[in-house]
Structures are given as structure tokens and as C-alpha cells.
Design a protein that fits this description.
alpha/beta; Rossmann fold; two-stranded antiparallel ribbon; binds manganese (II) ion
């Protein structure tokens, strides 16, 4: 059986002329990439955290997608002037879901906001806006269309990520926030030239986490190496499932 990958949905609340409508969604890039990689994507609506235990029974792996800023109250700060859109119900649901998934040693893949959320859920913090980072010198909110890789990342040689992408590659970039203090449970495995953390993994070899700051779901149709991140994820999910059956 192909592994089922849970993707927690975002919500569109901006249909001003149809304000009686609210729509749950995820980007098709995730759906297409997971399907091409041999997995079955399943959308999970952002819901009350009491639903976590019910939804988690139906999935083998968890993908945390991009979207809104994580509320800074989760890392002990007040929202600063440059914080952007927040979605508190999604924060609460995803953090509860992630914790339950980690208890089960479920394989995790995260992108952009999802990556920031993993760090925050495990005790790390974020730059609320990259302008607060003194060393900033790379354009991380790229003006080029998002299917173009625009900046390099430098990958730690002995990391899992390096086994997929090598020691250096180019990625797209569409994040105005980034990791400030990384959780001690995590290990940074890729940086941009200006030393922003662009990917991390788990310190615990029993816990399979790959978290990236860029958007491989947008690059994947044009850049096969980026689709490999999804194939790797599906493989990690299968391996984990096999371990638990023994
Ligand atoms: Mn970047």
C-alpha cells in the first residue's frame, strides 16, 4: 500500500465579496509532488486540536506546508511591527499534530512556515522579519517568479539533505521570517550565503525530520532534484512504517 501523507490545510478568509465563504486548501504543488513521489496526499482541515488523535490514525507521514506567520507568543515575544498575517487556529492545530506525530516517530517534511513551526514547537524562535537580522545580504523574498531558483544554499556534508542535493544548490526563496534560535533538538544542515538557516534535521537519528525554508513544491515540476525531496520523504515514511510493523 502506498503511504498516506497528511497535509494540514490552510484557510482562505479573504473573499470579501463572498464573506459567507471560507475555504480550506493546500497548494497543488504538494499534491502533485507527493503523488509523483509514490505517496497518497490527504488533506486534513485545520480543526480543533481535539481532532488530532482521530486524523492521525489515517496517515503514515506528516507534511507541514507554507503560509501565515507563526504567532510570536509561542516563542515568548509580542507581535512586532513587521509581523504579517497570523492564523492562530492553524498554529494550535499544527503544533498539537506535530507533537503527536513525533510521539509516534512519524516521518516529517516541512516547508517554509511549516519549518518555522517545527522549530517553534520544539522551543526555538524566529526573526519576526528578516530586516531584524543584522547580517542580511541575500534577497529572501525573491522578486523573480517562484519557479526560478535565485539564491545558493550550502549544505553540511554529512547531512541527510546532502545525500539528496549534494553540498551546494540553488533554491527559490519566499520567506520574510527565518529561524533565529534553533531548538536544541534540531541540527542546521543548510545555510544561505548570509548565514540564514535554510534547512534543518533532527538530532535524534530515530526521528526522521527534514525541514526546508524554500519551496520545493513549486520547483519540483522544473527541477527533478527538488522532486527527489518528496521521493526521499515517501521513502522515509515507508521505512518508518516498516520499523513499526516489526
Ligand atoms: Mn532563503
Amino acid at each position: 500500500m502506498k503511504p498516506v501523507i497528511g497535509i494540514i490545510s490552510s484557510r482562505l478568509n479573504h473573499l470579501k465579496e463572498m464573506d459567507y465563504l471560507s475555504i480550506s486548501y493546500t497548494a497543488d504543488g504538494f499534491i502533485n509532488a507527493i503523488q509523483k513521489a509514490g505517496g497518497i496526499p490527504m488533506l486534513i482541515p485545520t480543526s480543533d486540536p481535539s481532532f488530532v488523535e482521530h486524523y492521525i490514525e489515517h496517515i503514515d507521514g506528516l507534511l507541514l506546508a507554507g503560509g501565515q506567520d507563526v504567532s510570536p507568543v509561542y516563542y515568548g515575544e509580542e507581535p512586532d511591527i513587521l509581523i504579517q498575517e497570523l492564523f492562530p487556529e492553524r498554529d494550535a492545530f499544527e503544533i498539537a499534530f506535530l507533537k503527536k506525530a513525533l510521539e509516534r516517530k512519524m516521518a516529517i517534511f516541512s516547508v517554509c512556515r511549516g519549518t518555522q513551526l517545527v522549530n517553534v514547537a520544539l522551543g526555538g524562535s524566529l526573526y519576526q522579519d528578516l530586516s531584524y537580522y543584522k547580517g542580511l545580504s541575500v534577497q529572501h523574498v525573491q522578486k523573480a517568479e517562484l519557479h526560478y531558483p535565485t539564491h545558493h544554499i550550502y549544505i553540511e556534508e554529512d547531512s541527510h539533505l546532502a545525500s539528496i542535493l549534494g553540498d551546494k544548490t540553488m533554491v527559490n526563496s519566499y520567506h520574510h521570517q527565518a529561524v533565529k534560535v534553533l531548538s536544541p533538538q534540531l541540527r542546521a544542515v543548510a545555510y544561505s550565503k548570509d548565514k540564514i538557516i535554510e534547512a534543518f534535521e533532527s538530532q535524534d537519528p530515530e526521528q526522521s525530520i527534514l525541514a526546508v525554508q524554500w519551496h520545493p513544491e513549486i520547483l519540483a515540476p522544473y527541477h527533478p532534484k527538488q522532486l527527489d525531496l518528496f521521493k526521499d520523504f515517501v521513502d522515509r515514511v515507508k521505512n518508518q512504517r516498516a520499523k513499526q510493523q516489526h
